[in-house]
Design brief:
The complex is a heterotrimer of chains A (294), B (338) and C (328).
Chain A (H helix, E strand, L loop, with lengths): L1 H5 L4 H15 L1 H18 L1 H4 L31 H37 L1 H14 L4 H12 L3 H28 L2 H8 L4 H37 L11 H12 L5 H28 L8
Helix pairs in contact in A: 2-3, 3-5, 3-12, 5-6, 5-8, 5-10, 5-12, 7-8, 8-10, 9-10, 10-11, 10-12, 11-12
Chain B lengths: L3 H28 L5 H6 L5 H10 L6 H13 L13 H36 L4 H15 L2 H15 L24 H8 L2 H38 L2 H8 L4 H37 L5 H11 L2 H29 L7
Helix pairs in contact in B: 1-13, 5-6, 5-9, 5-11, 5-12, 6-9, 7-9, 7-11, 8-9, 9-11, 11-12, 11-13, 12-13
Chain C lengths: L3 E13 L5 E14 L4 E5 L6 H9 L6 E10 L2 E2 L5 H7 L4 E4 L3 H4 L6 H12 L4 H14 L5 H4 L9 H13 L5 E5 L7 H18 L2 E5 L3 H7 L2 E6 L2 E7 H4 L6 H8 L2 H5 L39 E4 L2 E4 L12
Parallel strand pairs in C: 3-8, 3-9, 6-7, 7-8
Antiparallel strand pairs in C: 1-2, 1-4, 4-5, 9-10, 10-12, 11-12
The chains are: A mainly alpha (294), B mainly alpha (338), C alpha/beta (328).
Chain lengths: 294, 338, 328
């Protein structure tokens, strides 16, 4: 395999070719990436796409069913559900992305150091993570956020810190596997300081696994972040956030105005699905056993 | 059984530090906001007198470690404080509602496992074919639906649109009285009492919430069972079984047997994780179990209940993990010696 | 009729690379050898030469992406490669016993040893559990496992590596096979245990008068235990014949180099001639596979080498009849 890798191939030709190969091998993942890109675009271009102001109440157009004027209908305040769903994408990204970034920023270094150095810090930390597992993460997150006050910053902090052990465990197990191998042995033998072994030799090897996990955890963070608002913690209803919209929509399902809650719900499922599919595909890509023609 | 007893004893000894950490974590939970804990415990309706009494009662004017020990002593005596919403002892409130939650959770996980495990196995055997891809997509969908929205969507479809299911308003039709309490499960109790109409209503109320939990837990069970089965199928013992010319059915049995331990362990972990989702499902269906009670307490800031609820969940998890360990001991000749 | 006659066996690995191009690794390229009843054949070669792949191909134990694309393997006159999977499965573990490389990893960890011995008997013959258990005990005794009655109830993890290997040999012999195939049976074991296992294995084969193939990379094992030898390089048998003829007078340059590299020869002052990587299986050189490493390579080696025969000894080389310079 090293033979093919050393051939000087023109990069702008090889890359799309690889992409096409990857698409064929895991179409689910490709669809996920595409969907994710569409959502990202939606978030960035939200102000241009939204036909209405997402928080402009219109007493003349309350609880209207989906129509030409309002694709997804209007809610109890006469706000345009379509515009609100699009704007909600921003909230989803704004909470999930920093939360996962925080989890990685805390978890990866912890995993690297404890995995490589071992000893009692490693032991204590792992026992602590084990102890954390006895609390269902949803309940723990909700309880902590409610105790600390349900601001957006707190939600991000709690989600990020609760999720850090996931990355710490992942990186630690990969480091443990590599530590006994020749890679580290050679690096030590050639006189590399510890920080260099960690950053230059070990970290790049854990990067792909971390990335695949990051997508899956972002999906979890998106779902959980909307749960806060759905329960009435933190972000409150007029705000165009998906969870808050579904909370409002749930009240109107009884009377038949299903569109208020269903459209943000579908958007939420799609974004969550896109992230999961992306993570699944990345994990697939890492598994060389899946690379046979069959 | 000869192996079980020393194993169990060793586990129980190991549990002590774990439970201590759990208690400490639960205690710290209350202090995260930096607010006055006595005010939080007493609730927004409390008078200054009540707060002062609570403060003395819990020793909240003492140094933190002392406070923790005082609290721990009370917890060990079964005193989890009072709910300011219902003004009843927290422990009694939680335990009264536990059967309703357990009924939902156990049925849901059972059905989820009964569907998920075979689907995962078939996926592994038909790897890369249509069934595998379909199962994978469905499992990914199950991963991606937020718990509470799944409950709402099922209600919308099967109650409002199709009118097949009863409304999501509790465990029994409002027209009926609950059966005399034996197990705490309305379905079982109604059957014991021979009240068929009540049993029917209880069963009908169970369908949607149980289905929600089954769907939620089937997704990861499918994915994990598939992965476990794939790794077992490519393991040396299976290759060796083929080299011995054992018939396909025998090989399948060997593979199943070798996949059992990791699958059981995973389902145990799922059961623990699902307690959170279960409480959201209870919330959506107004189930009135421990989960809904705990969630309400979290939302309304009934901190004595939140503390007790989190502690109860931790104890439940510990019991489940212990049960899984015992099960593994039965399944695995190698277990329990290390 | 030979016990086993393999001819022109080709096995390929078909995979896709990262650019989604189909790549074919030609792992076996026309392997052929013959085994007579009552003889032990040593299949030798360096890592990646295709020794183990040859036996797994014959037994029909390949999984994608590997597959047999051509060849014949006549076992007692019936072609193993042409029969159905279930017919082949009925022969495996029954008429053909198989000894794996890593016994401890390969035994079913969740079945007692007695149960595994009963299982393989009842898979191939109508036999009561009781009778099968009695045979199991007898065969454990036959492979020198002490206290066989009690060991029937033991779990695989309670055995040491050497004892587990004895169990695997018992499993291979319990149905009284006509052919025993051992795939590197001692690689995972301590040196002292290796000799015991090989003594046991050859005694069992000799005592029953059956045929056996021992896959190994150890020329010492071949010299000591085998009657015949087949030397493999890059998925082909380059030389074969009776050990008594091949070892003193190797015809193929690769065999010569291999024999020259044994510690005994090196101590005698013979120059080390072995070297270089095995050829790329994705792009095999045309003609003789060994020519890139061979010091006698000429232009003619670009064409397929003829089979030279002296007595029972055969070698695939253009210059096989020339005496090796190193020997002169």
């Amino acid at each position: 395999m090293s033979h093919a890798a050393t051939l000087p191939a023109p990069r702008r030709f090889v890359l799309p070719h690889r992409l096409r190969a990857w698409t064929r091998r895991s179409p689910l993942a490709a669809a996920g990436v595409l969907l994710l890109a569409a959502f990202a675009l939606l978030a960035v271009l939200a102000p241009l796409i939204m036909p209405y102001d997402p928080v402009a109440a219109d007493a003349a157009a309350v609880l209207q069913a989906p129509s030409q004027a309002h694709w997804f209908g209007t809610d109890a305040n006469g706000m345009d559900v379509f515009s609100r769903v699009i704007f909600g994408t921003l909230y989803a990204f704004a909470i999930a992305l920093p939360a996962v970034a925080l989890a990685i920023l805390v978890g990866v270094p912890v995993g690297l150091v404890t995995g490589y150095l071992g000893g009692w810090t490693d032991e204590v930390l792992m026992r602590f993570f084990d102890a954390l597992r006895v609390f269902p993460s949803i309940i723990l997150a909700l309880a902590v956020v409610s105790a600390a006050g349900a601001s957006v910053v707190n939600v991000v902090l709690v989600l990020g810190l609760l999720d850090a052990p996931v990355f710490a465990r992942l990186v630690r197990s990969e480091v443990l596997a590599l530590r006994s191998g020749s890679l580290v042995e050679c690096a030590v033998a050639t006189g590399n300081p510890v920080w260099r072994i960690l950053l230059v030799h070990l970290m790049p090897n854990t990067l792909q696994g971390t990335l695949a996990q990051a997508a899956v955890r972002a999906s979890w963070a998106v779902r959980l972040s909307t749960t806060f608002a759905f329960l009435g913690l933190g972000i409150q209803p007029p705000t165009p956030e998906w969870g808050a919209m579904i909370r409002q929509g749930a009240e109107y399902m009884v009377t038949g105005q299903w569109w208020i809650g269903v459209f943000p719900g579908i958007a939420l499922i799609l974004l969550s699905l896109a992230l999961n599919m992306t993570g699944d595909g990345l994990a697939d890509l890492l598994d060389p056993r899946r690379r046979s023609a069959g | 059984m000869r192996r079980a007893l020393p194993f169990l004893l060793r586990r129980l000894v190991l549990l002590v530090p774990l439970l201590f950490v759990v208690a400490l974590g639960t205690f710290v939970l209350l202090r995260l906001g930096g607010q006055d804990p006595s005010a939080m415990l007493a609730g927004p309706t409390a008078t200054a007198d009540e707060i002062a009494r609570l403060r003395a009662q819990y020793g909240l004017d003492r140094p933190l470690p002392v406070q923790f020990l005082i609290w721990l002593g009370r917890v060990l005596n079964g005193d989890l404080g009072h709910s300011w919403i219902s003004n009843r002892p927290v422990l009694a409130e939680l335990v009264d509602r536990a059967p309703a939650s357990l009924e939902l959770l156990v049925l849901g996980v059972l059905i989820g496992a009964l569907v998920g495990v075979p689907v995962g196995l078939i996926s592994a055997l038909r790897r890369g074919r249509g069934f595998d891809h379909a199962a994978r997509l469905i499992s990914l969908l199950g991963f991606s639906v937020p718990t509470y929205f799944l409950g709402l969507a099922l209600l919308l479809i099967f109650f409002y649109v199709l009118e097949w299911a009863p409304p999501g308003m509790g465990r029994l039709s409002l027209m009926l009285d609950p059966p005399p309490r034996v197990t705490g499960s309305f379905l079982l109790d109604a059957l014991f009492a021979g009240r068929w109409e009540t049993a029917q209503s209880a069963a009908a109320q169970l369908v949607l919430p149980v289905a929600s939990i089954a769907i939620l837990c089937a997704a990861p069970i499918i994915a994990q069972t598939r992965a476990i089965a794939l790794s077992v199928l490519s393991s040396p013992p299976i290759a060796y079984a083929e080299a011995q010319g054992l018939p396909p059915r025998t090989i399948a049995r060997i593979a199943l047997r070798n996949a059992a331990t990791p699958v059981v362990t995973f389902i145990g972990a799922e059961l623990v994780g699902l307690v959170g989702s279960g409480s959201l499902i209870e919330y959506v269906f107004a189930w009135g179990g421990t989960g809904q009670f705990g969630l309400d307490a979290i939302v309304k800031g009934d901190f004595a209940v939140v503390q007790g609820y989190v502690l109860l969940l931790a104890v439940f998890s510990v019991v489940v993990f212990l049960a899984v360990d015992l099960l593994v001991l039965v399944l695995e000749p190698r277990a329990g010696r290390a | 009729m030979s016990l086993l006659e393999v001819s022109d066996l080709h096995t390929h690995f078909v995979t896709r690379d990262r650019d989604d191009r189909i790549r074919t690794a030609r792992a076996l390229n026309g392997v052929g050898f013959t085994l007579q009843k009552g003889r032990i054949l040593g299949l030798v070669g360096e890592s990646g030469a295709g020794k183990s792949l040859t036996v797994t191909s014959i037994l029909g134990l390949l999984h994608p992406p590997a597959r047999v694309v051509a060849g014949r393997a006549l076992f007692q006159g019936r072609d193993l490669l042409a029969m159905s999977a279930s017919e082949r499965s009925a022969l495996r573990g029954n008429r053909i016993g198989f000894v794996v490389q890593s016994a401890k990893a390969s035994l079913d960890p969740l079945a007692r040893v007695g149960e595994q011995l009963v299982r393989v008997q009842r898979a191939h013959a109508r036999r009561s559990r009781r009778e099968a258990m009695e045979r199991a005990e007898a065969i454990l005794a036959a492979v020198s496992i002490p206290d066989p009655k009690r060991r029937l109830a033991a779990w695989p993890h309670e055995f040491s590596g050497g004892m587990a290997q004895r169990v695997v040999i018992a499993l291979a012999l319990v149905n009284e096979p006509d052919l025993l195939i051992a795939d590197e049976p001692t690689t995972a074991l301590d040196v002292t245990v290796q000799a015991q296992i090989l003594d046991l294995l050859s005694a069992a084969v000799r005592g029953r008068g059956i045929g056996a193939i021992i896959v190994t990379h150890d020329l010492g094992v071949v010299a000591q235990y085998c009657d015949d030898v087949a030397v493999m390089f890059a998925g082909s048998v380059v030389e074969q014949g009776p050990v008594a003829e091949v070892f003193p007078r190797p015809m193929h340059p690769y065999t010569q180099a291999l024999l020259a590299a044994t510690p005994e020869r090196l101590r005698l002052g013979a120059g080390l001639r072995l070297g270089g990587p095995p050829p790329n299986l994705y792009a095999l050189p045309e003609g003789c596979c060994y020519r890139l490493r061979c010091d006698r390579s000429r232009d003619v080696c670009r064409s397929a080498p003829p089979l030279a025969q002296v007595g029972d000894q055969r070698a695939a080389c253009h210059f096989a009849r020339e005496p090796a310079e190193a020997e002169a």
